[in-house]
Design brief:
This protein is an alpha+beta fold and 252 residues long. It is built from five helices and 15 strands. Helix 2 crosses helix 4 and helix 2 crosses helix 5.
C-alpha cells in the first residue's frame, strides 16, 4: 500500500486496494503500526464485508460505489458528546449529494436518504482513552453507479438510479473530502451548536406524525427534538414525550 496526495489538497490517501473486507477494519489494523494523519482516507474498489450498526451488512457491487473510511482526530469533542462526529459525517455526505440531486435528508442517527430511499450508510467507531476521544474511524458506503441491488435491504437507491447518469467515483470522493475538511474544521473550532442546528434542519421526517416501533409496539409520533447526545425525543399523539437511544426505536 502506498500513499498518494491529491492535487487539490494535501490529504493522504491509501490506494492500490482492489478488494478488502472492511475499510474500517483495514484502518484499525494499519493504525496499530503506523502513524495516520487526521483526514486520511482508506478506500477500496470492492468491499466484501461492509458493516453497519448491529452487524448489518452493506451491499456494494465491485467498482460501482464509494466504500471508504476516514481517520479523524477530534481536538475538543467531549467524550460524552461523540454524536457531533456523527453529525458532521452525515452532513458531509448530504452536502456532497446536494451537488447532484435534491431532497437529500439525514435519517436519525446518520443514514443519508434520497426521499424514502437509503443512498448512504455510516458506521463510526470511536477510540476513547482516559476520558478523551483519541480518534474516530468513520466508515462510509455511498451508492453511486450501482443499478441493481440483490440483498434483502428494504430501500437501497443509487445516484445513477436517480439521475440516469454515470459518475467518476474519485471526483465525488474529492468533493466529499473538501466538505468533510470544512465540517471538521468547524468541529475543531467548537462550533457545536451551529453544527447541531444544521443537523436538525436536514432530518428525515422532521415534520408531521409518522409510524414508529419500540419494545412496546407500534405508535405514531413526530420528532420533537434530537439531543446533542444523539438521543431522539418523540412526541406521541397524546403529547407525551419518549426518549430513545439508537436501536431502541425504529422507523416504519
Amino acid at each position: 500500500m502506498n500513499y498518494r496526495s491529491k492535487s487539490k489538497r494535501n490529504i493522504p490517501f491509501i490506494n492500490g486496494i482492489d478488494e478488502w473486507g472492511s475499510t474500517n477494519e483495514l484502518m484499525k489494523q494499519y493504525c496499530e503500526y503506523n502513524s495516520v494523519a487526521s483526514g486520511s482516507i482508506f478506500y477500496t474498489n470492492n468491499q466484501t464485508q461492509g458493516r453497519g450498526y448491529s452487524g448489518n451488512s452493506w451491499e456494494s457491487e465491485k467498482g460501482k460505489n464509494l466504500t471508504f473510511s476516514v481517520f479523524f482526530i477530534p481536538k475538543h469533542v467531549p467524550c460524552h458528546m461523540p454524536f457531533l462526529i456523527s453529525e458532521i459525517s452525515s452532513l458531509s455526505v448530504k452536502h456532497t449529494l446536494d451537488k447532484y440531486i435534491p431532497d437529500v435528508t439525514v435519517k436519525w442517527p446518520n443514514d443519508v436518504y434520497y426521499r424514502d430511499g437509503k443512498i448512504s450508510g455510516i458506521l463510526i467507531e470511536n477510540v476513547i482513552t482516559g476520558g478523551k476521544i483519541e480518534h474516530s474511524i468513520i466508515g462510509i458506503g455511498l451508492n453511486i453507479n450501482q443499478i441493481q441491488f440483490v440483498s434483502d435491504a428494504p430501500n437501497p437507491i443509487s445516484l445513477s438510479q436517480i439521475t440516469g447518469e454515470t459518475y467518476e467515483l474519485m471526483d465525488i470522493l474529492d468533493e466529499f473530502d473538501e466538505i468533510f475538511t470544512a465540517q471538521s474544521r468547524r468541529l475543531n473550532n467548537r462550533c457545536f451548536e451551529d453544527i447541531h442546528n444544521d443537523y436538525l434542519n436536514v432530518i428525515h421526517h422532521r415534520d408531521g406524525y409518522h409510524k414508529y416501533c419500540d419494545a412496546n409496539g407500534v405508535f405514531e409520533a413526530k420528532i420533537h427534538n434530537i439531543e446533542p447526545t444523539g438521543h431522539l425525543i418523540l412526541e406521541r399523539t397524546d403529547a407525551s414525550l419518549s426518549r430513545y437511544a439508537f436501536k431502541e426505536v425504529s422507523f416504519l
